[in-house]
Write a structure and sequence with these properties.
The protein is mainly α. It has a single domain, classed as Ferritin. Helices cover 73% and strands 0% of the residues. The longest helix has 30 residues, at 24-53.
Amino acid sequence: MSDASFIEPPRRTGEGRLPGDPTPRERVARIIRVDHAGEYGAARIYAGQLAVLGRTDARPLLEHMAAQEAVHLETFARMIGERGIRPTALLPLWHVAGYLLGAGTALLGRRAAMACTVAVEEAIDAHYRDQAAALGEDERELRETIERFRAEEGEHRDIGLAHEAERAPAYRLLAAVIKAGCRIAIRLSERV
C-alpha cells in the first residue's frame, strides 16, 4: 500500500504476545470494559455541560456530541452483555467524576467546556488508535467500530477547537490535567 502511515493489523489478536501478557480474550475484555467506561464518562461530561450551558447557544452543539456518545455507550454496553464481560467496578466513580468535570468546566465558560472536550478527545484518539492496532482480523468488527468511533471523537475535538477551546483561561494547564486524568481513568478501568 502506498500510504506509509498504514499499519497492517495482526492476523490474530494477541499475536506475538509475551509470557505474562494478557491472553487475547483478556485483552479484548479489557478493551471493551475500558471503552464502555470511557463512553459512560463522556456521556456524564456532556450531561454536566448541558446542565450548565443547556440554555445557551451551545446547547445544539453539546447535544450533537452527547448523542454520538450515547450511541458509543450503547454499543459497548451491548458488547459487554453479548460477550459476558464484567464492566468496571468504577462506574459509580465515573458517574460523579464525569458530571463534575463537565459541569465544572462549563461553569468556567463555554471555552473551558470546549477545552475539556479537546483534551478528552485527544487522549481518547491515542487510546483508540493503540487499541485498533492491537486487534487482529479475528476482531475486525470490534476494530472497525473503534475506528468509526475514533473518527467521531476526532470530530468532537475539531468542534472544540473551532469554538475557541484554546482561548479558555489557563488552557494548557487545564488540558494537561484533564488528559492526565483520562490516562489514569483508562488504566484503572481496564483492570478494576
